[in-house]
Design brief:
MutS, DNA mismatch repair protein, domain I; seven-stranded mixed β-sheet; alpha/beta; MutS, DNA mismatch repair protein, Chain A, domain 3; 4 domains; 886 residues; six-stranded mixed β-sheet; single chain; 31 helices; elongated; Nucleotidyltransferase, domain 5
């Protein structure tokens, strides 16, 4: 060490060598019963984990106990660090028997972890949350757990870019890809980021400045509470389609076939899938494969059956990033699930059911048949009373199930502990038995729903054979993680059997040797004992020490006795220890072989888990349906004119939040492409206009995802998209003003909306001067009415827009939120201005509201009375001036 002029210890030298190869990771170094940190890693650990660090020899040092590894790894990973776990590769017994027993223990990098790659035997993947020191919790549920790679290519247009993306969730095996053109605002890319909510982004060096800037902003500013981890990577090598195809072919052939040729995960299916992908998507795939290889997780990319294209227009309703944010579908404005639609609808019991419900909410269905199938399943379960045997069976079935999706993936990677395997296998066996008996006993209740009957009949067949795997392992040994006693029939693994036989033979020799020991010390009942882990010790009282031969080896002593081993015992015991180490290695190899055999059934087990997730989501929606005031929507044929007819509808979230304090005021909605397709809504500030239009959108979304809705009745034709332009917010970090944000979002809606879309525009034009704002609002609204023919809800404070009802009779209706006024404040009376107090009725009625009563809101907000009075006077003067001009 040039700075301190001291010599590095062997352990420090070992750390420096490993650190040089993994400079971007915080390293946990196994040292006996502790994991140690050195240098900068120790200071990071001390800061982030709230532990002590101190100078020891040449480095700052910190440490944690081994049993807390998974908690502290999760803590650092959650804060965005890349973490490496370095383990001892040899035990004390093997070390003592080796030629280099005086050297430092051999250590190697055992595993790497980041936010999206937290999969490993040490990480206890089946636990969603961990109680950590100090009572805090460690959770990685804030993001979706996706690792996403983005690549772009110039589409030839002056401003257009085409993106290729691949998002993989290593913990569950999901792989989502897409290839799409995008506008300069990157709205399509933002939509996919909002839907997938990745934990990590791989960013190619060749990305344009605009795309890199957008991703940097999205990663940090938009997700400031829990930033997305980003990793800069070089552009993948293939410059042509043929080069990419060759690399992909080598990847497909790189390992033995795990699945049969008829499996959706076969090598042939995988290759066909990869070769049909566009080049930018292939480049993302190659980058992900190289990145995941360091984590030993690239095997996930071989699951061809898990490949899925991001939701297409033909299959799901389109909900872009703006709609997800403005309608507070996944999280509320404060970033919490509470107060969001997902928070209200989520009554799932399983982690994999919870993930699927999120997808259902963000991907409402488009086909009448599929929607009605889901509604029928919800109706079947919601109609059952709580004491119905079928409902009890399902509740019992879904309760206390571990995360089977993550567990199956951990087994597939061969990164699963024996405890976790036992938990997964027992849960699958329970599902098999319960569903089989329930299907036999509840055929009548299930007959009404094809989804339910399919689940109860298919899952038992898919899970057949699980019991055979359970029978091959010893439950007690699995629970304590003892792989040397794990297999009930070691003969299936010859190397394991050989080790066991050798150990048994040596143990038998030692037992026979006892008679010679007894004769030597003249003690007929003496036997071997174990003290502090030291086995095969012979205890001799001090009074009989003269009878102990000189070649006996003294191991330990107390005031009363001494403990020895004979040379024969010492030799045989060393051999036993060495064979035990060989047994441990053989059992580890047998364990990996056992997991490989189990993984050949991954495809059908995973299919069964997906069906159970479906059942969990149906149960969740059935819980919602049983709430008072919820009805089953009527879905009309897609061929009919687009329409939404809601009677006495309520906002699903606000209705729940108000239950304890007040009653939500229901309202009606009637929209039809061939009839009144546009509702212009005016009214006082804080009168409930925004809540009303959100209510309509959420009811439509809920109906198309297959949920009951909060209303007296609902009829609608499936809509292809919900577009929203709400709120006045600038985006300084993107260099976009309030008005620029308004117009860019409106421009995209104008380009994409169809006659089957629901368009919601809230106060368009308020980001600029009144005249320009009115002009833009008028022209835009007229386009939707006259050209697009989409179903439109338009909130405005511009009374002049009301004349569109006269221009398009039968297609446009003027509406406002009802209110009552009372005499103004006496303090304002002194300035002779009438500023009435407004009582909101929150009821939608026909007609135009003449005023917005903004001064009333100013008073409620606590603006000083003298300022409100001055504003009232100025308002009165302006109104008089305009009246005189007329």
């Amino acid at each position: 060490n040039q700075r301190t002029k001291s010599v590095y210890t062997p352990l420090e030298q070992q750390f420096m060598e490993i650190k040089a190869r993994n400079s971007d990771a915080v390293l946990f170094i196994e040292c006996g019963y502790k994991f140690k940190f050195f240098g900068d890693d120790a200071e990071i650990a001390a800061k982030e984990l709230n532990i002590m660090c101190f100078m020891d020899h040449n480095f700052m040092v910190a440490s944690i106990p081994t049993h807390r590894l998974h908690i502290h790894v999760k803590r650092l990973v959650n804060k965005g660090y890349k973490v490496g776990v370095v383990k001892q590769m040899e035990t004390a017994a093997l070390k003592a028997a080796s030629d280099n027993k005086s050297n430092v223990f051999t250590r190697e990098l055992h595993a790497l972890y980041t936010k999206s790659t937290l999969v490993g035997e040490d990480m206890e993947v089946l636990r969603g949350k961990e109680d950590a020191a100090g009572g805090d919790e460690v959770s990685l549920e804030a993001h979706g757990g996706y690792l996403m790679c983005v690549h772009e290519e110039d589409s030839g247009a002056k401003t257009g870019i085409t993106y290729g993306i691949v998002a993989v969730q290593p913990s569950t095996g999901e792989i989502i890809y897409d290839y799409f053109p995008d506008s300069p605002s990157c709205s399509e890319l933002e939509t996919r980021l909002e839907h997938l909510s990745p934990s990590e982004l791989l960013i190619h060096d060749t990305l344009s400045e605009r795309t890199r800037s957008f991703l940097d902003v999205f990663s940090s500013y938009y997700k400031s509470a829990d930033p997305i981890r980003t990793e800069r990577i070089p552009d993948p090598l293939p410059s042509s389609q043929s080069d990419a195809n060759q690399i992909l072919q080598e990847f497909c052939n790189s390992t033995d076939e795990t699945f049969g040729s008829s499996s959706p995960n076969s090598q042939e299916t995988l290759l066909q899938t990869l070769l049909t992908l566009p080049l930018p998507v292939q480049k993302c795939f190659i980058s992900l494969q190289k990145y995941l290889k360091d984590f030993k997780l690239d095997k996930v990319l071989k699951l061809a059956g898990n490949f899925e294209k991001f939701s297409t227009i033909a299959k799901f309703m389109k909900l872009n990033g703006c709609a997800l944010q403005n309608l507070e579908i996944l999280k509320s404005q404060c970033g919490s699930r509470k107060g969001s639609l997902l928070g209200i609808l989520d009554h799932t019991s399983t982690p994999f059911g919870k993930r699927l419900l999120k997808r259902w909410i963000t991907q409402p269905l488009l086909e009448k048949r599929e929607i009605e199938e889901r509604l029928k399943a919800v109706s079947c379960l919601s109609a059952l009373s709580s004491d119905q045997p079928l409902l009890k069976s399902i509740h019992r079935l879904l309760s206390h199930i571990p995360d089977l999706e993550k567990g199956l993936c951990a087994i597939y990677y061969k990164k699963c502990s024996t405890v976790e395997f036992l938990s997964i296998a027992k849960a699958l066996s329970k599902l098999h038995d319960e569903l089989k008996s329930t299907e036999l006993n509840s055929a009548k209740e299930l007959a009404g729903s094809s989804i339910l009957s399919r689940t109860f009949t298919e899952v038992p067949d898919l899970l057949s054979g699980v019991e055979d795997f359970l029978n091959q392992i010893d439950e007690k040994a699995a629970k304590c993680g003892d792989k040397t006693k794990l297999f009930t029939d070691p003969s299936k693994f010859p190397p394991v059997l050989t080790c066991i036989q050798e150990i048994d033979g040596l143990t038998a020799e030692l037992k026979e040797h006892r008679s010679e020991i007894r004769r030597t010390i003249q003690h007929p009942s003496v036997d071997y004992c174990t003290v502090s882990g030291n086995e095969f010790l012979i205890e001799v009282r001090n009074a009989k020490l003269p009878s102990v031969p000189a070649d006996w080896i003294k191991i330990s002593a107390t005031k009363q006795i001494c403990r020895f081993r004979t040379p024969f015992v010492e030799e045989k015991f060393k051999s036993i220890c060495q064979w035990r180490e060989k047994l441990a290695q053989a059992c580890q190899e047998a364990w990996l072989e056992f997991l490989d055999i189990f993984s050949t059934s991954y495809t059908r087990f995973h299919r069964a888990v997906k069906l159970v997730a479906n059942l969990d989501c149906i149960m969740s929606l059935a819980t919602v349906a049983r709430q008072p005031g919820y009805v089953c929507p009527v879905i009309k044929k897609e061929t009919e004119a687009s329409s939404v007819l809601i009677t006495q509808g309520r906002h699903p979230v606000i209705d729940v939040l108000l239950q304890e304090h007040a009653q939500y005021v229901p309202n009606n909605t009637e929209l039809n492409t061939e009839g009144p397709r546009c509702m212009i809504i005016t009214g006082p500030n804080m009168g409930g206009k925004s809540s009303y239009i959100k209510q309509v959108a959420l009811i439509v979304l809920m109906a198309q995802m297959g949920s009951f809705v909060p209303a007296h009745s609902v009829e609608l034709t499936p809509l292809d998209a919900i577009y929203t332009r709400m709120g006045a917010s600038d985006n300084i970090y993107k260099g976009r003003s309030t008005f620029m944000v308004e117009l860019q979002e409106t421009s995209e809606i104008l380009a994409q909306a169809t006659r089957r879309s629901l368009v919601i525009l809230d106060e368009l034009g308020r980001g600029t001067s009144t005249h320009d704002g009115v002009a833009i609002a008028y022209a835009t609204l007229r386009h939707f009415i006259d050209q697009t023919h989409s179903l439109t809800l338009f909130v405005t404070h511009y009374p002049s827009l009301a004349e569109l009802e006269r221009i398009f009779p039968g297609h446009v209706t003027n509406n406002h939120m009802a209110f009552m006024t009372s005499d103004g404040d006496t303090e304002l009376a002194s300035v002779a201005m009438d500023t009435p107090a407004v009582t909101f009725l929150y009821e939608l009625v026909r007609g135009v509201a003449a005023r917005s009563y903004g001064l009333n809101v100013a008073r409620l907000a606590g603006i000083p009375i003298n300022i409100v009075a001055m504003a009232a006077g100025k308002s009165h003067d302006l109104e008089s001036e305009i009246a005189n001009r007329r």
